[in-house]
Amino acid sequence: MKVLYVEDNEQDADLTCRRLARLAPDIAIATVHTLADARARLAAEEAAGAPPDVLLVDVRLPDGNGLELLGEVRLRGLPIAVVMLTGSGDEALVVAALRSGADDYVVKSGAYIERLPATLAGVVQTFRQASAHRSTPIRVLYAEPSAADVDLLQRHLARYAPHVQVEPVFTAQEALVRLPPEADPGPDVLLLDFKLPGMNALDVVREVRHERGLNLPIIVITGHGDETSAAQTLKLGATDYLVKQEDLLNRLPVAIENAWYRAQLERERGALRESEERFRQMAESIGDVFWLSDPQRRVTLYMSPAFERIWCLPVSDVYANWRAWLDDVHDDDRDMLRARMDDLSLAELEFEFRVCPPGHEMRYVHMRVYVVRDGAGRHVRRAGVIQDITERKAQEARIEHLAYHDSLTGLPNRAMLMDRLGRALSQAQRLDQQLAVLFIDLDRFKLVNDSLGHHVGDQLLQEIARRLRATLRDNDTVARVGGDEFQVVVCNVAGATDAARIAEKLMRALGEPFTLAGQELHVTASLGVSLFPRDGASGELLLKYADTALYEAKGEGRNAYRFFSPEMNAQAHGRLRLENDLRRAVERHELELHYQPQLDLATGEVCAVEALVRWRHPVRGLVLPNTFIPIAEETGLVLGIGEWVLNEACRQVAQWQRDGLADNVSALRVAVNISARQLQRPGLDGAVRRALSLSGLAPPCLELEITESSVMLDPLHAQGVLQSLRDLGVLLSIDDFGTGYSSLAYLKRLPLDRLKIDRSFIGGIPSDSDDAAIVETIIVMTHKLGLRVIAEGVETLEQRLQLVRQGCDEMQGFLLAHPVPADELPALLKTLKEAAATARLTPPTP
Ligand code: C2E
Ligand code: MG
Ligand code: MG
Hints:
This protein is of the alpha/beta class and 846 residues long. It is 48% helix and 23% strand.
């Protein structure tokens, strides 16, 4: 603390300094003995930027009164506390000093020096507090023609209200140029003498308020008797008026301060209104709801307007009843919500719930609730934010749907199927019911896809999904796990017969023709069925068994359904073993070829033999191609097998030719079956060329049989392959014709020699008039294309006669001969030749 001590009595001064140095060493005290020295020292310290904190001034000094120094310090608004020192008996001076703004006084008597440190410290502290309080100066523009009045006021203010700073002007014009917009910022308060030269206060007030629209406080000072005119200034917008009386000077600082405070308050209110307005705008434009409540008083303190959009209730309802919003919460969510909201021990809450405003769409909302505590940590308020998450929920549901459904048909996918199956099984277990799992596979769907395009294939799958759904009950499940496979779970079936009825119903539904892309499509399906609890208890197992049964159904000629049986499982295992055995069949020389003759119906001579592969399995005995060719196809083993067949057939027939087996005009021809896999794999022409050159067989003695369906898998590719084969000089025929979907226009483009009518049509002759008509159509059509036609599977004489009548060129079948091992063929051909010769002698009666 820095003290400037003004004391003319040098002895007193010395004593005081010594005592203080001991009592309060932190006080730095400088002593001067006259007013003039005090002024000089003060000025110097001020200039150095280090003024004292306190002036300790003796009242009586040789060159004047200590009060003068006090007045000067206060007039200049210096931040220095002033303590007056008086002798005892100078009480009148004490009063004057305090009135003039002294902060305290000390009477020089008794142990006053001991009390001095405390007095000084206290004074500095209160002075600092007060000046902090009055740190904002109030700038007053004072229009007053009398310089004396101005001086008087300034002196007074310096003493009693140093924070009020007055700028004097003498005329109204001078005042006006110091106000906005000319001067900015203008003063805080305008003080006007009523009578101003040239312009009175009324005009000034009018100008300030009405022309310039300023709202700074205006205080008018009027002379005695002018109160009426002064009152008029109030009407025009003046803030206050004061009459020039004795106590004017005392009342003025108060009036100025009040006016300033009121203006300040007004400004603050304006700012508050503005901030409220900003808040309101924000609250109204934000989509989320936010609220504030007092859980102790059970009132809503604030609810933002977005509430009305979700609840379709006016916010006033929640002001009237703080829990009104709970009424429209979904019945299933309300109790949980209420219970947790009522539990005030929970600090932060988060909920998702549904709001169901009567007559409006249900909304999903997410609410987060925060606890607001007071300084003592008491839970006084709750704040909440509510977000409308209906859109997000819908989005999530869409994503979930995608995750659990097949996007093409909208049916459940594998994940969903397993889930549904699991539930259905536990329900069946609980209620002691039976359940059926059906595996459905479309026959030859790939063909539709490849020949008519994926677009039509997709439409077909969608249509099939619809039919399956329509055929079943709502709580049954239809799923699509991929490709053309559908899975069905039927709950509560009465038993195998009931399940069979359902399978038939499904097959019938799919059997109805589909009209897609202007075409009528006929689709058949194969079904496998497994039953709970008969076949198994787990979903995985039931599906696997249904799949096994399906495989069986397909193997037995498609368009059929099969129930799973334990034998089937054994067969499935057997199939696996077969597959392993098949891998080694070629190298172990277990394959052999049987030959079946083909007859020229015009000459009655054998024109060719078809090579048919057989597998002589070490344990199972002779295995027919229908059992192992599909496995070989699936595993790709058919490529090796096919190559062996090709080579072996060429070798054998070339050998027979050399042996003179076919001693007739045309050399014996051999027909070899080519699988779809062989056709697809590049290099078939190379393999054929090799077989021919290895065996020395003439190309026209080799005929390749390609099934209609394998050509139709990739017609464009097939066309190229067939052409390259044809370029080798071999003959080409379409096998199993009539079972695929090939069009005439397409066949015309292929380099073919022969069509082989599928034996299923021949089997229908003569009982099935449809089959007979189809056969006749194929014969006529084939001839139109310039091709020869052969009928396979001819078993009866009736069939042969009918085919002859319809103009068929060749035939093959049990009627003539079964396929025989190579070593039996020479004898067979001999017998057939003799039979033909006999027949020529006794032609059959038509
Ligand atoms: P596919 O090419 O249509 O061969 C004719 C099938 O019909 C042969 O059966 C034959 O024994 C049988 N068959 C002949 N005449 C009659 C008849 O009058 N009535 C009846 N019901 N059936 C008759 P197989 O030998 O069991 O061969 C079945 C199928 O296996 C063949 O049908 C062919 O697609 C395939 N296959 C046979 N050998 C081979 C081969 O070496 N390679 C390939 N890729 N497939 C072969
Ligand atoms: Mg064949
Ligand atoms: Mg055939």
